[in-house]
């Protein structure tokens, strides 16, 4: 009699630990921010070619000025940062010092106009820079604007947390009313609302960071927080009555 080979036991799925999960999450967030920055720069380049070419780099500079104005007006104090406008200004000064002054880029831009009139390699490089100066300076100011917008998003984190907490409490109350009132369950609504929470949490960050024009942050973030709170409330309210 031929003996059948012993059946193999399925290997248990090894889930990453807490440190590995946190590290992976940090990498994903960093990658998402880098992609948003590159996309915002590309959007500004497209605008320079198609829409506001006559403004040049001044368009991105005006965006930076508007974002700093809204930051100074609406975020004078915060639980996350002490004196957000002053802290953001120091951050921009630090970025300007290390990215423009230390690298010699600021000095090169000042000398490019005079060097372009001569002949030679340095003159050719100066002429090349002057031909793409609007794009280079636009990328610099968009990067600074990105830093300001990221600061604003971090300062509005309590708004989203409060919206989620409010929606969760309201949803639990509705769930209890449905539980003791013999209400009907709907797994379809529950799963759809649960899947919508992550996009509603991530989309405002990507949209606001990548906007190629100035927009008051509350016009985007307040509706986004309200929609997120509604999604959390629906998810909690439609959760199954009996565990």
From TrEMBL:
Membrane spanning stretches: 25-53, 121-144, 150-172, 193-211, 217-239
Keywords associated with the record: Membrane, Transmembrane, Transmembrane helix
Pfam families reported in the protein's UniProt record: DtrJ-like
InterPro entries: DtrJ-like
Keyword ATP-binding belongs to the record: no
The protein, known as: Integrating conjugative element membrane protein, PFL_4697 family
Source organism per UniProt: Pseudomonas borbori
């Amino acid at each position: 009699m031929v003996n059948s080979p012993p059946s193999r036991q399925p290997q248990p799925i090894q889930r990453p630990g807490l440190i590995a999960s946190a590290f992976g999450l940090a990498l994903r967030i960093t990658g998402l921010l880098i992609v948003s920055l590159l996309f915002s720069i590309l959007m500004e380049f497209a605008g320079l070619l198609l829409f506001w070419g006559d403004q040049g780099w001044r368009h991105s500079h005006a965006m930076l000025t508007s974002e700093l104005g809204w930051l100074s007006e609406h975020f004078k104090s915060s639980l996350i940062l002490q004196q957000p406008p002053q802290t953001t200004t120091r951050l921009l000064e630090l970025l300007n010092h290390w990215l423009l002054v230390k690298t010699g880029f600021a000095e090169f831009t000042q000398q490019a106009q005079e060097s372009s009139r001569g002949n030679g390699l340095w003159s050719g490089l100066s002429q090349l820079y002057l031909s793409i100066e609007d794009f280079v300076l636009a990328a610099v100011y968009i990067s600074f604007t990105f830093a300001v917008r990221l600061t604003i998003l971090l300062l509005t984190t309590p708004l989203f947390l409060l919206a989620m907490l409010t929606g969760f409490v309201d949803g639990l109350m509705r769930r209890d009313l449905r539980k003791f009132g013999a209400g009907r369950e709907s797994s379809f609504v529950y799963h759809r609302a649960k899947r919508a929470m992550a996009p509603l949490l991530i989309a405002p960050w990507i949209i606001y960071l990548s906007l190629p024009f100035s927009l008051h942050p509350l016009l985007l973030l307040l509706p986004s927080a309200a929609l997120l709170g509604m999604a959390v409330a629906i998810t909690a309210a439609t959760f199954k009555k009996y565990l």
